[in-house]
Specification:
With 532 residues, the protein is α/β, with parallel strands linked by helices. It is built from 21 helices and 21 strands. The chain folds into two domains: 218 residues, 3-Layer(bba) Sandwich (FAD/NAD(P)-binding domain); 261 residues, no CATH class. The chain has a six-stranded mixed beta sheet with strand order 7-17-18-19-16-20. Strands 11-2-1-15-21 form a five-stranded parallel beta sheet. Strands 5-10-6 form a three-stranded antiparallel beta sheet, with no helix packed on it.
Length: 532
Protein backbone atom coordinates (compact mmCIF):
# COMPACT_ATOMS: atom_id res chain seq x y z
CA UNK A 1 0.00 0.00 0.00
CA UNK A 2 1.49 3.35 -1.04
CA UNK A 3 2.25 5.77 1.78
CA UNK A 4 0.46 9.09 1.82
CA UNK A 5 2.59 11.96 0.51
CA UNK A 6 3.63 14.47 3.14
CA UNK A 7 2.61 17.99 2.20
CA UNK A 8 5.40 20.52 2.19
CA UNK A 9 4.95 23.51 4.49
CA UNK A 10 3.88 26.76 2.86
CA UNK A 11 6.85 29.09 2.45
CA UNK A 12 5.85 32.54 3.69
CA UNK A 13 8.02 35.65 3.29
CA UNK A 14 7.22 38.56 5.62
CA UNK A 15 8.74 41.91 4.71
CA UNK A 16 8.99 44.01 7.86
CA UNK A 17 9.76 43.10 11.48
CA UNK A 18 7.60 45.64 13.29
CA UNK A 19 4.57 44.70 15.37
CA UNK A 20 2.60 43.63 12.26
CA UNK A 21 5.31 41.38 10.86
CA UNK A 22 6.12 39.79 14.20
CA UNK A 23 2.43 39.25 14.89
CA UNK A 24 1.98 37.44 11.59
CA UNK A 25 5.13 35.38 12.19
CA UNK A 26 4.01 34.44 15.71
CA UNK A 27 0.61 33.18 14.55
CA UNK A 28 2.19 31.20 11.70
CA UNK A 29 4.94 29.80 13.93
CA UNK A 30 2.33 27.97 16.03
CA UNK A 31 1.91 25.62 13.03
CA UNK A 32 5.48 24.57 12.10
CA UNK A 33 4.14 21.61 10.12
CA UNK A 34 2.12 23.99 7.89
CA UNK A 35 4.37 27.04 7.46
CA UNK A 36 8.02 27.86 6.91
CA UNK A 37 8.41 31.55 7.75
CA UNK A 38 11.13 34.03 6.77
CA UNK A 39 11.18 37.65 7.98
CA UNK A 40 13.19 40.21 6.01
CA UNK A 41 13.92 43.71 7.30
CA UNK A 42 16.48 46.36 6.40
CA UNK A 43 16.75 47.51 10.04
CA UNK A 44 19.28 46.00 12.44
CA UNK A 45 16.71 45.30 15.18
CA UNK A 46 13.10 44.14 15.25
CA UNK A 47 10.32 46.49 16.29
CA UNK A 48 10.02 49.02 13.49
CA UNK A 49 9.13 52.38 15.07
CA UNK A 50 8.99 50.82 18.55
CA UNK A 51 12.51 51.70 19.65
CA UNK A 52 14.50 52.37 22.81
CA UNK A 53 17.61 54.53 23.18
CA UNK A 54 20.22 54.65 25.95
CA UNK A 55 20.68 57.73 28.14
CA UNK A 56 22.95 58.55 31.09
CA UNK A 57 21.39 56.92 34.18
CA UNK A 58 23.61 58.84 36.59
CA UNK A 59 22.40 62.13 35.12
CA UNK A 60 18.71 61.40 34.48
CA UNK A 61 17.82 58.61 36.90
CA UNK A 62 17.07 56.07 34.14
CA UNK A 63 19.21 54.25 31.61
CA UNK A 64 16.94 54.42 28.55
CA UNK A 65 13.88 56.00 26.94
CA UNK A 66 11.31 54.58 24.55
CA UNK A 67 11.25 57.14 21.76
CA UNK A 68 9.20 55.89 18.81
CA UNK A 69 6.17 54.54 20.65
CA UNK A 70 5.28 55.55 24.19
CA UNK A 71 2.21 53.60 25.24
CA UNK A 72 -1.42 52.93 24.49
CA UNK A 73 -4.98 52.62 25.63
CA UNK A 74 -5.98 50.01 28.22
CA UNK A 75 -8.13 48.53 25.43
CA UNK A 76 -5.02 47.21 23.64
CA UNK A 77 -5.90 43.70 24.83
CA UNK A 78 -3.94 41.85 22.15
CA UNK A 79 -0.76 43.91 22.55
CA UNK A 80 -0.61 43.37 26.29
CA UNK A 81 -1.22 39.63 25.95
CA UNK A 82 1.49 39.56 23.29
CA UNK A 83 3.92 41.35 25.63
CA UNK A 84 2.97 39.25 28.65
CA UNK A 85 3.81 36.00 26.84
CA UNK A 86 7.47 37.03 27.01
CA UNK A 87 7.20 38.38 30.57
CA UNK A 88 6.78 42.09 29.82
CA UNK A 89 4.03 44.24 31.30
CA UNK A 90 2.87 47.81 30.72
CA UNK A 91 2.57 50.28 33.58
CA UNK A 92 -0.56 52.22 34.47
CA UNK A 93 -0.18 55.99 34.45
CA UNK A 94 -2.70 58.79 34.81
CA UNK A 95 -3.04 60.63 31.50
CA UNK A 96 -2.67 64.31 32.37
CA UNK A 97 -2.71 66.94 29.62
CA UNK A 98 -1.27 70.44 29.43
CA UNK A 99 -2.20 72.31 26.27
CA UNK A 100 -1.22 75.92 25.57
CA UNK A 101 0.46 78.64 27.61
CA UNK A 102 -1.06 81.32 29.84
CA UNK A 103 -4.58 81.92 31.14
CA UNK A 104 -6.16 82.57 27.73
CA UNK A 105 -4.74 79.53 25.92
CA UNK A 106 -4.09 76.88 28.60
CA UNK A 107 -6.34 73.95 29.43
CA UNK A 108 -5.97 70.57 31.07
CA UNK A 109 -8.12 67.62 32.08
CA UNK A 110 -6.97 67.93 35.70
CA UNK A 111 -8.82 71.14 36.67
CA UNK A 112 -11.09 73.67 34.90
CA UNK A 113 -9.33 76.53 33.15
CA UNK A 114 -10.45 79.87 31.75
CA UNK A 115 -10.42 78.46 28.20
CA UNK A 116 -12.73 75.61 29.23
CA UNK A 117 -15.02 78.12 30.94
CA UNK A 118 -15.05 80.37 27.87
CA UNK A 119 -16.22 77.55 25.60
CA UNK A 120 -18.63 75.88 28.01
CA UNK A 121 -21.63 76.15 25.67
CA UNK A 122 -19.67 74.78 22.72
CA UNK A 123 -18.44 71.85 24.79
CA UNK A 124 -21.99 70.98 25.79
CA UNK A 125 -23.16 71.27 22.18
CA UNK A 126 -20.34 69.02 21.00
CA UNK A 127 -21.86 66.19 23.03
CA UNK A 128 -25.03 65.96 20.96
CA UNK A 129 -23.06 66.69 17.78
CA UNK A 130 -21.06 63.51 18.38
CA UNK A 131 -24.32 61.56 18.65
CA UNK A 132 -25.50 62.98 15.33
CA UNK A 133 -22.18 62.01 13.70
CA UNK A 134 -22.55 58.49 15.10
CA UNK A 135 -26.10 58.15 13.74
CA UNK A 136 -25.03 59.29 10.25
CA UNK A 137 -21.56 57.73 10.45
CA UNK A 138 -21.30 56.56 6.80
CA UNK A 139 -21.80 60.15 5.65
CA UNK A 140 -19.46 61.72 8.20
CA UNK A 141 -16.78 59.10 7.44
CA UNK A 142 -16.26 61.01 4.19
CA UNK A 143 -16.12 64.42 5.88
CA UNK A 144 -13.09 65.93 7.61
CA UNK A 145 -13.38 66.94 11.25
CA UNK A 146 -12.56 70.51 10.21
CA UNK A 147 -15.55 70.57 7.83
CA UNK A 148 -17.79 68.95 10.43
CA UNK A 149 -16.94 71.63 13.01
CA UNK A 150 -17.71 74.36 10.47
CA UNK A 151 -20.93 72.66 9.45
CA UNK A 152 -22.18 72.78 13.04
CA UNK A 153 -20.88 76.35 13.38
CA UNK A 154 -18.47 75.84 16.26
CA UNK A 155 -16.25 78.86 17.04
CA UNK A 156 -12.85 78.76 15.34
CA UNK A 157 -11.03 79.27 18.65
CA UNK A 158 -12.87 76.30 20.15
CA UNK A 159 -11.88 74.12 17.21
CA UNK A 160 -8.25 75.27 17.14
CA UNK A 161 -7.51 75.33 20.88
CA UNK A 162 -9.57 72.41 22.18
CA UNK A 163 -10.88 69.94 19.61
CA UNK A 164 -8.00 69.66 17.14
CA UNK A 165 -5.23 69.44 19.78
CA UNK A 166 -7.15 66.71 21.60
CA UNK A 167 -7.63 64.75 18.38
CA UNK A 168 -3.93 65.20 17.58
CA UNK A 169 -3.16 63.63 20.95
CA UNK A 170 -5.53 60.72 20.29
CA UNK A 171 -4.11 59.87 16.89
CA UNK A 172 -0.64 61.41 16.65
CA UNK A 173 -1.68 63.13 13.43
CA UNK A 174 -0.11 66.51 14.17
CA UNK A 175 -0.72 69.15 11.54
CA UNK A 176 -2.84 66.78 9.44
CA UNK A 177 -5.45 66.63 12.23
CA UNK A 178 -7.98 69.00 10.56
CA UNK A 179 -8.27 66.50 7.69
CA UNK A 180 -9.01 63.45 9.86
CA UNK A 181 -12.37 61.81 9.23
CA UNK A 182 -15.17 63.15 11.44
CA UNK A 183 -16.36 59.59 12.05
CA UNK A 184 -12.98 58.63 13.50
CA UNK A 185 -13.19 61.64 15.84
CA UNK A 186 -16.62 60.48 17.03
CA UNK A 187 -15.41 56.92 17.57
CA UNK A 188 -12.53 58.08 19.73
CA UNK A 189 -15.12 59.28 22.22
CA UNK A 190 -18.02 56.86 21.73
CA UNK A 191 -16.54 53.54 20.54
CA UNK A 192 -15.54 51.38 23.57
CA UNK A 193 -12.79 49.73 21.51
CA UNK A 194 -11.09 53.02 20.63
CA UNK A 195 -12.14 55.50 23.33
CA UNK A 196 -9.53 56.79 25.73
CA UNK A 197 -11.44 59.73 27.22
CA UNK A 198 -15.06 59.86 28.31
CA UNK A 199 -16.79 62.96 26.98
CA UNK A 200 -17.70 65.51 29.63
CA UNK A 201 -20.25 68.27 28.89
CA UNK A 202 -18.54 70.39 31.55
CA UNK A 203 -14.82 69.91 30.88
CA UNK A 204 -14.71 68.25 27.41
CA UNK A 205 -12.91 65.22 28.82
CA UNK A 206 -13.87 63.45 32.00
CA UNK A 207 -11.42 62.87 34.82
CA UNK A 208 -7.88 61.51 34.34
CA UNK A 209 -8.04 58.28 32.31
CA UNK A 210 -5.62 55.42 32.72
CA UNK A 211 -2.92 55.15 30.06
CA UNK A 212 -0.53 52.24 29.72
CA UNK A 213 3.17 53.06 29.37
CA UNK A 214 5.06 50.39 27.45
CA UNK A 215 8.00 48.45 28.90
CA UNK A 216 11.47 48.72 27.39
CA UNK A 217 10.62 48.10 23.75
CA UNK A 218 14.11 47.14 22.63
CA UNK A 219 14.03 44.24 25.10
CA UNK A 220 10.44 43.29 24.19
CA UNK A 221 11.20 42.92 20.51
CA UNK A 222 14.55 41.25 21.07
CA UNK A 223 12.77 38.65 23.21
CA UNK A 224 10.28 38.12 20.41
CA UNK A 225 13.07 37.75 17.87
CA UNK A 226 14.68 35.01 19.96
CA UNK A 227 11.34 33.31 20.56
CA UNK A 228 10.47 33.22 16.86
CA UNK A 229 13.89 31.82 16.00
CA UNK A 230 13.33 29.07 18.58
CA UNK A 231 10.08 28.26 16.77
CA UNK A 232 11.88 27.85 13.46
CA UNK A 233 11.30 31.30 11.99
CA UNK A 234 14.23 32.65 9.97
CA UNK A 235 14.87 36.37 10.57
CA UNK A 236 17.13 38.24 8.19
CA UNK A 237 17.87 41.72 9.52
CA UNK A 238 19.99 44.34 7.73
CA UNK A 239 18.61 42.82 4.52
CA UNK A 240 16.70 44.76 1.89
CA UNK A 241 14.29 43.41 -0.72
CA UNK A 242 15.65 44.90 -3.94
CA UNK A 243 13.09 43.45 -6.32
CA UNK A 244 9.93 41.39 -6.43
CA UNK A 245 10.54 39.40 -9.59
CA UNK A 246 7.14 37.76 -9.85
CA UNK A 247 3.97 36.95 -7.91
CA UNK A 248 2.26 33.97 -9.48
CA UNK A 249 0.28 31.13 -7.91
CA UNK A 250 2.42 29.72 -5.09
CA UNK A 251 5.44 31.27 -6.74
CA UNK A 252 6.66 34.55 -5.26
CA UNK A 253 10.23 35.32 -6.30
CA UNK A 254 12.17 37.89 -4.27
CA UNK A 255 15.61 39.40 -4.70
CA UNK A 256 17.31 40.76 -1.61
CA UNK A 257 20.74 41.92 -0.54
CA UNK A 258 22.53 43.26 2.54
CA UNK A 259 21.72 46.92 3.20
CA UNK A 260 24.27 49.43 1.94
CA UNK A 261 25.78 50.01 5.39
CA UNK A 262 26.73 46.32 5.33
CA UNK A 263 28.51 46.82 2.01
CA UNK A 264 30.75 49.38 3.70
CA UNK A 265 31.69 46.75 6.27
CA UNK A 266 32.93 44.55 3.45
CA UNK A 267 30.16 41.99 3.69
CA UNK A 268 29.38 42.29 0.01
CA UNK A 269 26.52 43.61 -2.02
CA UNK A 270 25.58 40.44 -3.89
CA UNK A 271 21.90 39.81 -4.45
CA UNK A 272 20.19 36.55 -3.55
CA UNK A 273 17.07 35.21 -5.24
CA UNK A 274 14.62 33.01 -3.39
CA UNK A 275 11.16 31.60 -4.08
CA UNK A 276 8.25 31.58 -1.63
CA UNK A 277 4.62 30.53 -1.82
CA UNK A 278 3.05 33.54 -0.10
CA UNK A 279 4.05 37.11 0.73
CA UNK A 280 3.02 39.33 3.66
CA UNK A 281 3.89 42.99 3.23
CA UNK A 282 4.18 44.25 6.82
CA UNK A 283 5.56 47.67 5.88
CA UNK A 284 3.93 51.05 5.39
CA UNK A 285 1.92 51.59 2.21
CA UNK A 286 4.49 53.91 0.66
CA UNK A 287 7.33 51.43 1.22
CA UNK A 288 5.21 48.59 -0.15
CA UNK A 289 4.77 50.44 -3.45
CA UNK A 290 8.49 51.19 -3.66
CA UNK A 291 9.31 47.52 -3.11
CA UNK A 292 6.70 46.32 -5.62
CA UNK A 293 7.83 48.76 -8.33
CA UNK A 294 6.69 47.40 -11.72
CA UNK A 295 5.08 44.41 -10.03
CA UNK A 296 2.40 46.65 -8.50
CA UNK A 297 -1.05 46.37 -9.99
CA UNK A 298 -3.35 49.27 -10.86
CA UNK A 299 -5.47 48.39 -7.84
CA UNK A 300 -2.46 48.44 -5.51
CA UNK A 301 -1.26 51.78 -6.84
CA UNK A 302 -4.72 53.30 -6.35
CA UNK A 303 -5.41 51.96 -2.85
CA UNK A 304 -1.91 52.10 -1.37
CA UNK A 305 -1.11 55.38 -3.09
CA UNK A 306 -3.98 57.05 -1.28
CA UNK A 307 -2.13 56.79 2.06
CA UNK A 308 -0.17 60.02 2.53
CA UNK A 309 2.98 60.38 4.64
CA UNK A 310 4.83 63.33 6.15
CA UNK A 311 8.28 63.69 7.68
CA UNK A 312 8.46 64.75 11.33
CA UNK A 313 11.46 65.08 13.62
CA UNK A 314 11.49 64.23 17.32
CA UNK A 315 13.99 65.88 19.64
CA UNK A 316 14.58 64.20 23.00
CA UNK A 317 16.11 66.75 25.34
CA UNK A 318 16.27 68.12 28.89
CA UNK A 319 15.83 71.82 28.16
CA UNK A 320 13.27 72.86 30.79
CA UNK A 321 13.64 76.54 29.86
CA UNK A 322 12.40 75.77 26.35
CA UNK A 323 9.42 73.84 27.70
CA UNK A 324 8.60 76.59 30.20
CA UNK A 325 8.58 79.18 27.44
CA UNK A 326 5.74 77.56 25.50
CA UNK A 327 3.95 75.26 27.95
CA UNK A 328 2.65 74.98 31.50
CA UNK A 329 4.67 72.36 33.35
CA UNK A 330 3.49 73.05 36.90
CA UNK A 331 0.27 73.85 38.72
CA UNK A 332 -0.52 77.55 39.25
CA UNK A 333 -3.69 78.72 40.93
CA UNK A 334 -3.97 81.61 38.47
CA UNK A 335 -4.64 79.05 35.71
CA UNK A 336 -7.86 77.85 37.36
CA UNK A 337 -11.17 79.23 36.03
CA UNK A 338 -12.01 82.04 38.46
CA UNK A 339 -15.80 81.50 38.31
CA UNK A 340 -15.47 77.86 39.33
CA UNK A 341 -13.16 78.14 42.32
CA UNK A 342 -16.06 78.07 44.76
CA UNK A 343 -17.37 74.75 43.41
CA UNK A 344 -16.60 71.69 45.52
CA UNK A 345 -15.52 69.67 42.48
CA UNK A 346 -13.13 72.43 41.42
CA UNK A 347 -11.70 72.78 44.92
CA UNK A 348 -11.07 69.04 45.03
CA UNK A 349 -9.33 69.21 41.64
CA UNK A 350 -7.20 72.15 42.80
CA UNK A 351 -6.13 70.31 45.94
CA UNK A 352 -5.16 67.30 43.85
CA UNK A 353 -3.33 69.37 41.24
CA UNK A 354 -1.33 71.25 43.84
CA UNK A 355 0.40 67.99 44.82
CA UNK A 356 -0.07 65.70 41.82
CA UNK A 357 -0.06 67.80 38.63
CA UNK A 358 2.39 65.86 36.45
CA UNK A 359 1.32 66.27 32.80
CA UNK A 360 2.55 63.73 30.25
CA UNK A 361 1.27 65.25 27.01
CA UNK A 362 1.74 68.83 25.85
CA UNK A 363 0.65 70.72 22.77
CA UNK A 364 1.85 74.15 21.69
CA UNK A 365 -0.12 75.91 18.96
CA UNK A 366 1.71 78.35 16.72
CA UNK A 367 0.43 81.92 17.26
CA UNK A 368 0.03 82.81 13.57
CA UNK A 369 -1.86 79.60 12.75
CA UNK A 370 -3.33 77.77 15.78
CA UNK A 371 -4.14 74.73 13.62
CA UNK A 372 -0.41 74.10 13.37
CA UNK A 373 1.06 72.54 16.47
CA UNK A 374 4.05 70.87 18.01
CA UNK A 375 3.65 67.96 20.44
CA UNK A 376 5.74 67.15 23.50
CA UNK A 377 5.99 64.47 26.16
CA UNK A 378 7.45 64.58 29.63
CA UNK A 379 9.12 61.18 29.51
CA UNK A 380 10.08 61.39 33.18
CA UNK A 381 6.40 61.64 34.14
CA UNK A 382 5.37 59.03 31.57
CA UNK A 383 7.77 56.10 31.43
CA UNK A 384 8.10 53.49 34.19
CA UNK A 385 11.89 53.42 34.45
CA UNK A 386 11.79 56.94 35.89
CA UNK A 387 9.55 55.68 38.73
CA UNK A 388 11.87 53.01 40.11
CA UNK A 389 9.81 50.31 38.41
CA UNK A 390 11.61 47.36 36.93
CA UNK A 391 11.16 48.06 33.21
CA UNK A 392 11.00 44.49 31.96
CA UNK A 393 11.69 40.92 32.82
CA UNK A 394 10.85 37.37 31.85
CA UNK A 395 9.72 36.54 35.40
CA UNK A 396 6.69 38.84 35.10
CA UNK A 397 7.31 40.43 38.52
CA UNK A 398 4.70 42.26 40.55
CA UNK A 399 5.29 45.97 40.12
CA UNK A 400 6.11 48.04 43.19
CA UNK A 401 4.30 51.26 43.99
CA UNK A 402 5.16 54.04 41.57
CA UNK A 403 7.48 56.48 43.29
CA UNK A 404 8.59 59.41 41.12
CA UNK A 405 12.33 59.91 41.33
CA UNK A 406 13.57 63.31 42.41
CA UNK A 407 16.77 65.27 42.05
CA UNK A 408 17.23 64.63 38.32
CA UNK A 409 16.38 66.88 35.37
CA UNK A 410 13.28 65.81 33.47
CA UNK A 411 13.68 64.26 30.03
CA UNK A 412 11.31 65.63 27.37
CA UNK A 413 10.55 64.79 23.78
CA UNK A 414 9.29 67.46 21.39
CA UNK A 415 7.96 66.51 17.95
CA UNK A 416 8.12 69.03 15.10
CA UNK A 417 5.61 68.18 12.42
CA UNK A 418 5.68 68.12 8.62
CA UNK A 419 9.09 69.00 7.23
CA UNK A 420 7.49 70.70 4.22
CA UNK A 421 6.11 73.40 6.54
CA UNK A 422 9.02 73.87 8.92
CA UNK A 423 9.11 77.66 8.61
CA UNK A 424 7.46 78.13 12.03
CA UNK A 425 9.35 75.41 13.88
CA UNK A 426 10.99 76.50 17.14
CA UNK A 427 13.41 73.58 17.04
CA UNK A 428 16.48 75.84 16.92
CA UNK A 429 15.51 77.36 20.28
CA UNK A 430 16.28 74.11 22.10
CA UNK A 431 19.71 74.28 23.74
CA UNK A 432 21.91 72.10 21.52
CA UNK A 433 23.92 71.00 24.54
CA UNK A 434 20.76 69.55 26.06
CA UNK A 435 19.67 67.48 23.07
CA UNK A 436 20.00 63.75 23.70
CA UNK A 437 18.47 62.20 20.56
CA UNK A 438 17.19 63.56 17.27
CA UNK A 439 15.30 61.31 14.86
CA UNK A 440 13.27 61.70 11.69
CA UNK A 441 10.06 59.71 11.31
CA UNK A 442 7.74 59.06 8.38
CA UNK A 443 4.23 59.60 9.76
CA UNK A 444 0.87 58.74 8.25
CA UNK A 445 -1.74 61.44 7.70
CA UNK A 446 -5.21 60.13 8.56
CA UNK A 447 -7.15 62.39 6.21
CA UNK A 448 -10.70 61.77 5.06
CA UNK A 449 -9.52 60.59 1.64
CA UNK A 450 -7.70 57.75 3.41
CA UNK A 451 -11.04 56.62 4.83
CA UNK A 452 -12.64 56.92 1.40
CA UNK A 453 -9.97 55.44 -0.84
CA UNK A 454 -7.98 53.02 1.33
CA UNK A 455 -9.73 51.74 4.46
CA UNK A 456 -12.90 50.40 2.77
CA UNK A 457 -10.89 48.63 0.06
CA UNK A 458 -8.14 46.74 1.91
CA UNK A 459 -10.09 43.51 1.39
CA UNK A 460 -9.77 44.02 -2.37
CA UNK A 461 -5.97 43.83 -2.11
CA UNK A 462 -5.51 41.11 0.47
CA UNK A 463 -5.09 37.66 -1.00
CA UNK A 464 -4.50 38.94 -4.54
CA UNK A 465 -1.27 37.92 -6.29
CA UNK A 466 -0.32 35.68 -3.33
CA UNK A 467 0.07 38.85 -1.22
CA UNK A 468 -1.42 40.03 2.06
CA UNK A 469 -0.95 43.46 3.62
CA UNK A 470 -0.48 44.12 7.33
CA UNK A 471 0.00 47.44 9.08
CA UNK A 472 -1.86 49.91 11.27
CA UNK A 473 -2.00 52.26 8.27
CA UNK A 474 -4.89 50.14 6.98
CA UNK A 475 -7.12 51.79 9.58
CA UNK A 476 -5.60 54.02 12.26
CA UNK A 477 -2.04 54.34 13.55
CA UNK A 478 -2.30 52.27 16.74
CA UNK A 479 -0.08 49.46 17.99
CA UNK A 480 -3.14 47.25 18.56
CA UNK A 481 -4.29 47.61 14.95
CA UNK A 482 -0.80 46.83 13.70
CA UNK A 483 -0.64 43.58 15.66
CA UNK A 484 -4.17 42.52 14.72
CA UNK A 485 -3.52 43.15 11.03
CA UNK A 486 -0.57 40.74 11.26
CA UNK A 487 -2.71 38.14 13.01
CA UNK A 488 -5.38 38.60 10.34
CA UNK A 489 -2.93 38.05 7.47
CA UNK A 490 -1.67 34.85 9.10
CA UNK A 491 -5.25 33.74 9.78
CA UNK A 492 -6.19 34.05 6.11
CA UNK A 493 -3.23 31.83 5.24
CA UNK A 494 -4.58 29.14 7.58
CA UNK A 495 -3.09 29.92 11.01
CA UNK A 496 -5.24 30.09 14.13
CA UNK A 497 -5.95 33.34 15.92
CA UNK A 498 -3.75 32.91 19.04
CA UNK A 499 -5.95 34.64 21.64
CA UNK A 500 -9.36 33.25 20.69
CA UNK A 501 -10.12 32.31 24.31
CA UNK A 502 -10.16 36.01 25.35
CA UNK A 503 -13.47 37.55 24.30
CA UNK A 504 -12.22 41.16 24.56
CA UNK A 505 -9.16 40.46 22.44
CA UNK A 506 -11.20 38.34 20.00
CA UNK A 507 -13.80 41.06 19.51
CA UNK A 508 -11.13 43.46 18.23
CA UNK A 509 -9.59 40.77 16.04
CA UNK A 510 -12.94 39.99 14.41
CA UNK A 511 -13.40 43.67 13.58
CA UNK A 512 -9.97 43.94 11.93
CA UNK A 513 -10.42 40.62 10.10
CA UNK A 514 -13.71 41.85 8.68
CA UNK A 515 -12.31 45.23 7.64
CA UNK A 516 -9.01 44.07 6.16
CA UNK A 517 -10.22 40.82 4.59
CA UNK A 518 -14.04 41.00 4.42
CA UNK A 519 -13.95 37.75 6.36
CA UNK A 520 -15.26 36.12 9.53
CA UNK A 521 -13.61 33.75 11.97
CA UNK A 522 -13.92 30.11 11.08
CA UNK A 523 -17.11 28.83 12.71
CA UNK A 524 -15.55 25.76 14.29
CA UNK A 525 -12.81 27.85 15.93
CA UNK A 526 -15.19 30.52 17.21
CA UNK A 527 -17.66 27.95 18.55
CA UNK A 528 -14.93 26.11 20.45
CA UNK A 529 -13.91 29.30 22.25
CA UNK A 530 -17.18 31.18 22.72
CA UNK A 531 -17.89 29.95 26.24
CA UNK A 532 -14.40 30.58 27.59
Amino acid sequence: MASKAVEKPIRVAIIGSGISGLGAAFALSQHPEKFKVTIIDKLHVCGGMATSEDIDEAKFGASYVNDGVQGGSPQFFNVYKFFKMQGFVPTEVGLQLSFGKGKKEFWTNVFPSELIEKHQKSISRLGWTLKIVKFFEPIFALMSVQTMLKLFMFPQDFSDRLVLPLLALFMGTGNQTPHVSAAIFERLFLDPSMALFEFSPDNLVSDIPTMMAFPKLRDVYEAWRKYLISKGVEIRLKTEVTEIVQRKKNNVVLKFAPTKDEWVKGEGSGETTETFDQLIMAVDADSALKILKKQSTWRERRILGNVKYFWDVSVTHWDKAYMDKYLELEYKEELVAQNRKSEYVCQTAMAYAEKEFRPLYFIHSYPDDPKRIEMSFDLTNYQPQFKLIKPSGPDYPAQPKQMPITGFPHVYQTIFLNKERSDQWTKNEIDKDKILIEKWWKQQGHNWTHYLGTVPWMWALNGQNETHYAGAWGLVNMHEIGLLSGFAAAYKLGADYPFADDKNARRLFEAVLALFHLSKMRKEEKDSKKNR
